[in-house]
Amino acid sequence: MSAEPLLTSDVVGLTKVAPFSRRGFMTASAAVTAGYTLAAGPVRADVITTDTNGLTAGDAKIKVADGEMPGYFARPASASNPPVVLVAMEIFGLHEYIKDVTRRLAKLGAFAVAPDYYFRKGDLTKVADIQQLLPLVNSKSDAELLSDLDSTVAWAKAQGGDTSRLGIIGFCRGGRTVWEYAAHNGALKAGVAFYGPPVDPPNPLWPKSPTQLVPEMKAPVLGLYGEADTGIPVAQVEVLKAALAAANKPAEFKIYPGAPHGFHADYRASYRKEAAEDGWNQMQAWFKKYNVLG
């Protein structure tokens, strides 16, 4: 009998959302045509769409230890040496939401890059069943993940990005990645983690959870969480917050009342406009405070 895939806390928060009406959502075929994944559930019809006016944007090929990693980048067309911001995706692969976030960051003046660090597992945007997706993403080791991110930074620098003003933003599993990378890269100036799990389930490929990495944190991180996240209890966030404070590590947290997991994901039923917009503003202020954004 095959074991059920491990439901990590980010996925619990994703799958246990309040019931919703299908009205106001795209058909599955329209969602796929628009570049969204189906594994995350129905796609909202009024997704945020960011154009490329004033930007240079497109696909990237990033040299990594064992070949080439696909990615997506966007940068201001006229800026020389713009700051670099890594975009750490959810478990759904490099789909349209993550690309749009990348363009939004470029509109703020950043050279934003979203590496497809799950590429060795195939194109995750084409996996429509979350139960099939979980074993793939849960088999990604932290060592390989951090190496892929380092390779992305090197690629951005070679393309003219200013990696002395390096930031990282991530959502869901990518929010966890922000915490992990902040403990890894001493050159990182700041990170912003949207609902990244502070605690991991047992997995030999993930030696230390964000909370266990507190003593090793090298960059200030802003943690943005939903009070109604069914997978990440507020108590877990408070433990992480207290540990960072005790270790004198610069970090701030904001917990949004009534907001579920995925409140920034404007393509999903979990989207909460007010929390999402405030979180985006908090992110900009944080990156400006630490000189990532001008």
From TrEMBL:
<dbReference type="InterPro" id="IPR006311">
    <property type="entry name" value="TAT_signal"/>
</dbReference>
<dbReference type="InterPro" id="IPR029058">
    <property type="entry name" value="AB_hydrolase_fold"/>
</dbReference>
<protein>
    <submittedName>
        <fullName>Carboxymethylenebutenolidase</fullName>
    </submittedName>
</protein>
<dbReference type="InterPro" id="IPR051049">
    <property type="entry name" value="Dienelactone_hydrolase-like"/>
</dbReference>
<feature type="domain" description="Dienelactone hydrolase">
    <location>
        <begin position="69"/>
        <end position="290"/>
    </location>
</feature>
<dbReference type="Pfam" id="PF01738">
    <property type="entry name" value="DLH"/>
</dbReference>
<dbReference type="InterPro" id="IPR002925">
    <property type="entry name" value="Dienelactn_hydro"/>
</dbReference>
<dbReference type="GO" id="GO:0016787">
    <property type="term" value="F:hydrolase activity"/>
</dbReference>
